[in-house]
Amino acid sequence: MHFDKSKLVQKLFETRDLSDEELRFLIENNESDERLFALSDKKRREIYGDEVYLRGLIEFTNICKNDCLYCGIRRSNKNITRYRMSSQQILKCCELGHALGYRTFVLQGGEDSFYTDDIICEIVGSVKSAYPDCAVTLSIGEKSRESYQRYYNAGAERYLLRHETASPGHYARLHPSEMSIENRKRCLFDLKEIGFQVGAGFMVGSPYQSTENIIDDLRFLQQLRPEMIGIGPFISHKDTPFSGFENGTLELTLRLLAILRLCFPFALIPSTTALGTVDPKGREKGLRAGANVIMPNLSPTEVRDKYMLYDNKICTGDNAEECRGCLERRVKAAGYSIVTSKGDARKEE
Ligand code: SAM
User: Fold this and answer.
1) Ligand 1 center–CA 31 separation, angstroms
2) Which of 27, 114, 123, 190 gives the lowest tally of CB atoms within 10 Å of its CB?
3) Nearest of 254, 248, 291 to residue 269 by alpha carbon
4) Does 303 fall in a domain?
5) Which residues span the domain enclosing 178?
6) At 1, is the pLDDT very low, low, confident or very high (cuts 50, 70, 90)?
């Protein structure tokens, strides 16, 4: 079916939704996306102005019990040096991050059973008591509802857990059989009910992904209504079963960022490191397409190159101060300004 692209974009701007047919056309159409980007930028400025929020990312362990086929830190990869950081090391990163103006710390890692619920709660509690003006975001995978409740009670207020793909058949091609989209969704709804600000999302151009899968992702996000949505291109990793697959493209990722901004005007949407990896100006382009969050790396430089989710990941050599300065320049050059606040999602009146 053929549609007038600029009319579709206008309709999405006004109504925040399109039919499956219309979405398919918009996702697959390769004509200029300038109008789409102009309207997504307009929408983002209506709600968030030119503000870009920073999240200091601490990748505190690369040990993982899972074996996701796309991921460089999957348990079967014997070709990496594993590490885990102590509570003291994590707190040191927060100290540095706080001095650099970060007011959100994202603790991300593989699913590493060394960090029991007691340990996670102790870490969250120490970060919150040292920096009561900061938000703590966890991104440590699938847990029981009881565990999530404990993290929340300890002071964590946000949780990132990409759903990866909402289509069960596609999910099964990206993950080993012991993982399921049902459990992933259960986690996301539990987190939401407990009161976390929740982030879901998916990789763009992951192996076997079809337009239908992407439409399923958008429909799932409409059902979940997450405060944060993280998408970035799939990038192959040489020591995974997906080493021979093509990377996701800059073009499709930017188009989807703009579509997400128009469907979810209030969402916090990062311009990801993966986007900066597929294109040297990828993160700036992501901001102009509708993203409003950047997640600079706060992990100590000695561990950076060990958290290799995919090949050629950028920012593995720079220290935290250098990352901060570099991002400040990039955000300014893209026409936006960095804000050093907790940066909660705005709520619709
Ligand atoms: N274990 C936690 C989880 O599962 O949510 C957090 C860490 S996990 C490595 C963080 C994210 O990295 C995943 O949600 C996935 O989308 C992304 N990722 C992993 N491998 C990737 C790849 N090859 N290309 C792009 N993104 C990738």
Assistant:
1) 30
2) 114
3) 291
4) yes
5) 34-339
6) confident
For residue 45, what pLDDT band results from cuts at 50, 70 and 90?
A: very high
Listed in sequence order, the residues at least 6 apart from 51 whose beta carbon sits closer than 8 Å to its beta carbon are 292, 336, 337, 339, 343
Tokens of 279: 């294109």
Q: How far is the centre of ligand 1, averaged over its atoms, from the C-alpha of 309 (Å)? A: 7
Q: Is residue 160 part of a domain?
A: yes
Q: Ligand 1 pocket: which residues have CB below 6 Å?
A: 70-71, 73, 108, 110-111, 139-141, 161-162, 164, 203, 232, 234-235, 237, 274, 309-310
**For ligand 1, what atom is nearest to the CA of residue 203?**
16
In a domain, 29, yes or no: no
277 CA to middle of ligand 1, Å?
Answer: 14
Is residue 12 assigned to a domain? no
Tally the domains of the chain: 1
5 Cα–ligand 1 center, Å: 33
The ligand 1 atom nearest the CA atom of 73: 9
pTM for this model (two decimals): 0.98
Token code pair at residue 24:
């398919």
State pLDDT tens for residues 91-149: 999 999 999 999 999 999 999 999 999 999 999 999 999 999 999 999 999 999 999 99
What is the 3-state secondary structure of 243-284?
Answer: CCCCCCCHHHHHHHHHHHHHHCCCCECECCHHHHHHCCCHHH
Within 13 A of 284's CA, how many CA atoms are on the CB side?
13
**Distance from the alpha carbon of residue 74 to the mean position of ligand 1, in angstroms:** 10
Separation CA 52–CA 283 (nearest Å): 12
Q: What is the domain-level CATH number for residue 237?
A: 3.20.20.70
Q: What percentage of the chain carries pLDDT values higher than 70?
A: 100
Q: Considering only CA atoms, give the Rg of the chain.
A: 19
